[in-house]
Specification:
The chain is built from six helices and no strands. By secondary structure, it is an all-alpha fold. The protein is rod-shaped and about 90 Å long.
């Protein structure tokens, strides 16, 4: 009888240790998702911080269409107002966030295309440096989003795998939504000379 009790206690202890490890692993991966999301937001913030410098450089160097500059400023304001808590990464919230960022990307594209008509601006060292910074920032955003998606994939694989899915259900670990390309990004831009 005592062997049965000892065996049962060992099984319960083994299950307890395994459960603790599984739970702690899911917590660690959940925190990694939050960290990756913070890096995405950091790169978007870097872009938003560069935009006033770009706009001021363009204003100072060219007699420019006012509406183009205003659309960049307005899009930047909308993009910086739309934020998501790492605890609330739902598909709807990510879509709202991405829509605001897409609006800013579109306004920046119109601005950069419009400056092609101003040779003195294209030769301005400050403008060239800011343009390079924006290009670098866009690359950083892409890397941060890809890293976020990889972290989400790892987390989702864990919370959906057996037997971790049982622990995930008990403790409320839900799958996270990765970044997806917007519909506008599905079509390649037309380049005309």
């Amino acid at each position: 009888m005592s062997r049965i009790i000892v065996s049962l206690m060992m099984i319960v202890a083994a299950f307890g240790f395994t459960s603790c490890g599984t739970y702690n692993g899911m917590v660690s991966k959940d925190e990694a998702v939050k960290e990756a999301w913070a890096k995405v937001q950091s790169q978007y913030q870097r872009r938003a911080d560069l935009i006033p410098n770009l706009v001021n450089t363009v204003k100072g160097a060219a007699d420019f269409e006012k509406s183009t500059l205003e659309s960049v400023i307005e899009a930047r304001a909308k993009a910086t107002q739309t934020t998501i808590s790492p605890d609330n990464l739902t598909p709807e919230n990510i879509q709202k966030f991405q829509a605001a960022q897409d609006g800013l990307s579109s306004a920046l594209s119109r601005l950069l295309v419009s400056v092609e008509r101003y040779p003195e601006l294209k030769a301005n060292q400050n403008f060239l440096e800011l343009q390079a910074q924006l290009e670098g920032t866009e690359n950083r955003i892409t890397i941060a989003r890809n890293d976020f998606n990889g972290t989400v994939r790892d987390y989702n694989s864990t919370v959906r795998s057996f037997p971790a899915n049982i622990m995930a259900g008990i403790f409320g670990f839900q799958t996270k939504t990765p970044f997806e390309a917007s519909q506008a990004a599905q079509n390649a831009p037309a380049v005309q000379f």
